[in-house]
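Case study.
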Amino acid sequence: MVVDERPNATLTTSSPAKPLGKYELSHLDALESEAVFIFREVAAELERPVVLFSGGKDSIVLLRLAEKAFRPAGFPFPVMHIDTGHNFPEVLDFRDRRVAELGERLIVASVQESIDKGRAVEEPGENSSRNRLQTVTLLDAIVEHGFDACFGGGRRDEEKARAKERVFSFRDEFGQWDPKRQRPELWSLYNGRIRKGEHIRAFPISNWTELDVWQYIARENLEVPEMYFAHRRQVVERDTMLLAVSEWIQPRAGESTYEATVRYRTVGDMNCTGAVESSATNVAEIIEEVAATRITERGATRADDRFSEAAMEDRKKEGYF
Amino acid sequence: MELLRLATAGSVDDGKSTLIGRLLFDSKAIFEDQLASVERASVQRGHEYTNLALLTDGLRAEREQGITIDVAYRYFATPRRKFIIADTPGHVQYTRNMVTGASTADVAVILVDARKGLLEQSRRHAFIATLLRIPHLVVAVNKMDLVDWDETCFRTIVDDFSAFSSSLLPVADVTFIPMSALQGDNVVDRSTRMPWYDGLPLLEHLETVHIAEDRNLVDMRFPVQYVVRPMSEAHHDYRGYAGQVAGGVLRAGDEVVVLPSGQRSTVAGIDTYDGPVEEAFTGMSVTVRLTDDVDISRGDMLVRADDEPSTSQDVEAVVCWMVDQPLRHGGRYAIKHTTRWARAMVADLIYRLDVNSLERDDAATELALNEIGRVRLRVTAPLMHDPYGVNRTTGSFILVDESTNVTAGAGMITSD
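After joint prediction, the assembly is written out as follows.
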């Protein structure tokens, strides 16, 4: 990982945060309260929501926020995972264990099934990504189950198209996002009105950063899959990313594999998610590392976002997460 | 650490993108891959310098047209505070975007080009910030390097602004900062070239401006958002009213009135996932249990007996219009106020306001896109409301076009 050596004027001249006053919320408490409000607002205004869960850190935080919003009752919606068939096995184990602990209902929608049914066509090329194909599976699952709202763990700091997306993001009957015709969103007055066949994507942690997510994981003592922590793994370097050697990733001519101490900053498919060199073995060390890093998490780890300046915007228009 | 929400208004010409770029860069919130991608894009487009606007102009259409269309949200933190910037376009045809970004802001930064002085655009921005009751305004007098760091030039803008703002509504706390975003003077570091300025640089001001007092901690308002009923063996009789405190402090044992029904009860307990709490204050999301079995549903409001809001089907408000189809006398819309939906009819368009001259046009018959005016609404259900100046949550509403479901207007309730 790259650490910035630039002197940081802010860090050296600024005194530490002053203690909070009696009726002040910390930034994590304010973000949590906002997210809980969003969860309850969707549950109150829409008929059939679903929360998307990938087993990654952002969706782990989402599930805790849903507990905060609805306990002692159960979630007023199921949990859904879009399984690409290229997931890290430890993430699937983690997913099943976490949902069982919560006592909630899990729906798994499979990209492989979409391909087998002829709904989706594998992209050509060696180890092609199933990232875009997830959109087909997701939209089909939305129709099949009649969902009218999907909670996602998208954050505005991740990517520049997401930076413009609403908390309640309207999707038309084709599941498409139209960035030019977004509904104005003022105060906390979210507009969840839709017609049949349309749906809302709701992003309770829109205003969180990667650092906020890790600080919250630390505060809430949340378990995350082991791959987020530094471990030894056989990797191959490709397009300046470290990819884990697996069923889908084998060295090509001219490439060599080696063992490195790495961790993952995001959880995605095995064939398009890169690892970063790191020695962080616990959440506190990850927080230190994230605070010092100079590369965004998607830039460091996602081959799928490197297609063009507008890769995310284009995928989102099609109905991506 | 506290969270501060910031809205910035100005055009690219005022150096707004440069300013935001510098705040983000100096606080390490711009990453190397983002910068590299902006540098690549700038070269490809033939720009002579790295165009930091490309960082915030996230949409394809924005980059194609070289303009900011929509509100972009940006995040940075210092050891003292975490900041959320709502970066809004400055042109008059994007007034609705500025209103959107300003709706939740604690601080507005209005950029003024030192060479040009106080233009119509700056006045408009100040007016909107004041209308939206942003408690703190910063007038950033930028490009001081191009006027030779001249104090007189700065003072003229301060005087012009002060003269203008005295004609506005009760104005927020205003701070004037002379700066050069390009050269970094008075953004993060104190400028050595303007010894006549004894105030803080922008970042230090943003880190220390006192925002805790801005919230209304006096008048307790709890709009019921969601009823938690577990329907399980373990919690058979549990019935909790979930919501976010919109004003004041709610305590266990408080006697409360349920509006609009007027029934009375007592707070039996305030629950959170992390256990019961003795009190809940503005901004907290909690679940309230009452001692009596009263009929309460989403959209109702718990308040204290001796401190009730106005409850009425008739409200007057200043509305900013956000869609092409104009607002007209007699128009009917869906209205959302706190957690309550109802329908509203425009009983009267009292006047339209010219956002540049602030002149009132009493003869206006409609409000077009990006226009602002005062209306009287008749609502199908009573709204439990406070003036917007007293409480931004219980004083605001949106109007939704029922044929398209699009948010058509934003309203701020005026005091009677």
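Observations recorded in class. Strands of chain A lie at 49-52, 79-83, 106-110, 149-151, 168-171, 199-202, 231-238, 241-244, 257-264, 275-277. The longest strand of chain A covers residues 231-238. We will return to this complex in the next lecture.
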